Structure formats: structure tokens, C-alpha cells
């Protein structure tokens, strides 16, 4: 059997499996482990027997058995085993649940963004447990080393376990904070899909489209939530460029993309959402980012881009939600609108930040601005540093190509 078949089933069913386990057994770490063991068992057994008629029920049943076996082997959890048995007499808990067609993905996101954790820990743990991102991918999103993120995830699980955390849907008072965390999960999931942090492919369309699907569900549930609408518009306007962003596995920068390959239906939908939400009053960070994406999307050519407007939007974003990634994006816009020296002045402080010195994009943006400023030698040095730091092969190939374009061609000496 093609291993991608199991991967596709797992990606589709894993939120439902984890949600079912959490409702019954409560411990996120144990449920994650059991679900993963069930996925490994599926890869082995389905290769021989084929995918069962009810793969979700099969996975839940196998994961439940793993948990029950673990509880029985651990005398310290005897009371918990008895509680499970009392709640579900006999072997009823092992029976596959009816597949009612409901999608538990959004509910599981709300469940896993547990109020017992800090916002960043909620988001990181949910990205790992529900979205299936690796620790390395989550670390890249937070601009921290993988070891640091591993420690954060372990501490978060231990915090929940020590508190005897119960996973239940939020109350009305808890809902705004929980929705904000879920939006961060969806946005970071989309970001990883739009530009993979590692590997030989630039885009993971499955991740990006899953993030859009989840955000669309959230928007349908709470259509008057301005930031949910802004996040959906941002994803649609950004993902509309996906087909033009690579050519034969190589990165194509925005300035060189064939705009006829953009998905103009997605662009129109994103603009419509933005036009509905912006006049309503409060403007949040996702709406501002969506507005930037709309300016790019509506420019017929790279040369026709309204960089002044983009610079203004990034200035507003820097006041509302300051951060190094916003600074880098603003530096590019300011460099295009006012000149490269103004952009370089914005990113100069980032070079004193150890975290941003390790981030390839700091050096890539600096290289771009130095190239615009007529300093090819400085640009080559920064492009080279960026190429050494990135773990994305398409980005690495693009950066090395920029180096080759800027380095002087050796002259052949006929007397040699």
C-alpha cells in the first residue's frame, strides 16, 4: 500500500481520534502517545489488510486499548482505571463510535488551548498535538532552538498533568481568550504551509488549506468576529499566490511571479471579506496584514505596487503588534517606498538581538536592501549568511543564485 494513503487518513482522522480520547481519558500527553501508537499500528496492519471501513473507529479502539493497558500496568493509576471502567462498563469503551460525520477539529482546538497554560504554550502544544507539526517546525515559528521548544512542550504537558487538567469547552467568559489562541494556531499552521521551514519543498498546500478550512469554520461559527474575518482574508489573499511561488521546486520571488497564475477567485473573496470588516471599527493585526496582502494582490505589476500604503500599514502594525518579523517586513516596504538606507536603519537593531542574528530572514532582508543600495559585496556576505542559516532547500537555492548573480565573473587572462 502506498504509505501516503495512511498519511492522508491519519491527517483527516487524527483530530477526531484525539478529541475522543481526551473526552474519555483526559491526559493530553498519554492521549497523544496512544494516538501515535495507533497510527504506527495502522501503518503496519493496513498495509496487509487494507484500510478498514471505519478507520476512525479502528484508530480510537486501538488507542483506547493502549491507554487501558498502560493504566493497568501502572498501579498508581488504578483509581483512574476504575473510573473509566465505571463510566463505561465492560468493553463498551473499546467499541468504535458511530461516525456521525461531524468534524471535531475546531472543537479540539478550543479544548486543547487550555486556560491552565500561557498563550504561547497553548498554541505550541496545540500545534504539536492537533496540527501534527514537528517540534522543529514549531521552534522555527517561535524563532527559538528546537531544544528550547522541546523543553517548553514538556513543561506544558507536565503543568497540565500536575493540575489534573480537565479538557472541556470554554465558558462564555473564557471564549474570547480561547478564540484568540485558536487564531494563532491557525495562522502559524498556515504560515508553515505557505513557506515550509525545512525540507525540499517550498509549500505544503495540505497544511495551508487545512488552516484555511479551520479558519473558515470559525468564521462561519462567529461571523461578527472581526479578527477571525481578518485572518481568513489574510490566508485567502496570501494563498492565492501559491501556484506562482515556485518553478520546478525553485522559489520565485514576488517581483518575478506570473500574476496570471494567481487565484483571482480567492483574491476576490479575500477582498470582499476585508471590505466588510474594515469599516466596522476596531482594526486588529490580522486585518492589517490582510490589507497588506490585498495591496499586493490588487497590483497589476510589481512596479505598480503601492509601497507607500504598505509602509503605512506596517507602521500601524508595528504600533499594534510590534515584533521582529513585523520589523523585517516593514523594512522591505520602507526600503521600496523611501529608499534602501531607510530600510537598513530599521533592521540594524535586529542584528544586536542574538535570536534574530540566528534567523536567516534577517540576513536575507539586509542583503536585499544592500543590493538595492548598490553594495554588492555587502549583499553577497549577507546572502551567504542567510543561505547558511536556512533549512529550506528552495530558499537556500534562491539565496545561492543571488550570490552567483552578484559575484564578479573571473576574467580569463590570455597570458596565463
Number of strands: 4
Mean pLDDT score: 86
Biggest β-sheet description: 2 strands, parallel
- Low-pLDDT residue spans: 80-101
Strands of the largest sheet, in order across it? 1-4
Question: Can you put this structure into words, describing what you see?
Answer:
This protein has 416 residues and is mainly α. The chain is 67% helix and 2% strand. The protein has helices at residues 3-25, 28-49, 55-73, 78-87, 105-112, 119-129, 135-142, 146-162, 175-194, 205-221, 226-239, 264-277, 285-298, 307-320, 324-338, 340-347, 354-357, 360-372, 376-389, 393-406; strands spanning 198-199, 246-247, 250-251, 391-392. The protein has a two-stranded parallel ribbon with strand order 1-4. Helix 2 packs across helix 3 (55-73), helix 11 packs parallel to helix 13 and helix 14 runs antiparallel to helix 15. It is globular and about 70 Å long. Residues 80-101 have low confidence and may be disordered.
Please sum up the structure shown.
The chain is mostly helical. It contains 20 helices and four strands. Helix 7 packs across helix 8.
List the defining traits of the structure above:
globular, 416 residues, two-stranded parallel ribbon, mainly alpha, 4 strands, single chain, two-stranded antiparallel sheet, 20 helices
